[in-house]
Design brief:
With 172 residues, this protein is an all-alpha fold. It folds into two domains: 60 residues, no CATH class; 85 residues, UraD-like (Orthogonal Bundle). Helix 2 crosses helix 3 and helix 3 packs across helix 4. The structure holds 1-(2,5-dioxo-2,5-dihydro-1H-imidazol-4-yl)urea. The site of 1-(2,5-dioxo-2,5-dihydro-1H-imidazol-4-yl)urea has 15 residues, from helix 7.
Length: 172
């Protein structure tokens, strides 16, 4: 898909295509549609990131709360968004053994209790051992530091999802 095509999209098509670049937050695609034309991926992404940056803390936390748990029940049930399902499956999170799942559940739970949103990490840039280590490490962060770390991961996930869309073939 190229930027000539993207910049010519109507509102509905744009939100259909870009609605999940930030997990379950189609509002963001809806908001930046009127800011077309975009020069390239970096430009489009900058509009997304500027939108997030301008949100109050409650909005930033809301974005994090839209993310599913890593290796949670939805992954097993196959009810994640297609993007999340692919990312978590490819990171090997469907194949955790009973003990790994118990550890992940326990750390996820501790993290959510402490920070009030789920632990978020770009699964495609990681593997299960690293994710587990990062979860344990980030549990020691201060809340303000952790909000920044988690939003960094949201931006990485967004970048990878945008690259996928741009690599996808155009409709005839
Ligand atoms: C996810 C997800 O669904 N995909 C990804 O890269 N990270 N979730 C999460 N809680 O980090």
């Amino acid at each position: 898909m190229d930027f000539q095509k993207i910049n010519s999209m109507g509102f509905g098509e744009f939100v259909d295509v870009f609605g999940n670049i930030i997990e379950k937050c189609p509002l963001i695609a809806a908001a930046i549609w009127s800011q077309r034309p975009f020069a390239d991926l970096a430009d489009l992404e900058k509009h997304v990131f500027d939108f997030i940056e301008a949100l109050p803390q409650s909005g930033k936390e809301g974005i994090l709360r839209c993310h599913p748990d890593l290796a949670g029940r939805e992954l097993q049930l196959g009810t994640l968004t297609p993007e999340s399902q692919r990312e978590q499956r490819n990171a090997g999170l469907r194949d955790l053994d009973r003990e790994e799942r118990r550890q992940m559940d326990q750390l996820n739970c501790e993290y959510k209790k402490l920070f009030g949103f789920p632990f978020v990490i770009a699964a495609r840039l990681s593997d299960k051992a690293t994710m587990m280590r990062e979860l344990a490490r980030r549990l020691r962060n201060q809340p303000s530091q952790e909000l920044c770390a988690a939003l960094d991961e949201v931006r990485k996930i967004c970048h990878l999802r945008l690259e996928d869309i741009l690599r996808s073939p155009m409709d005839p």
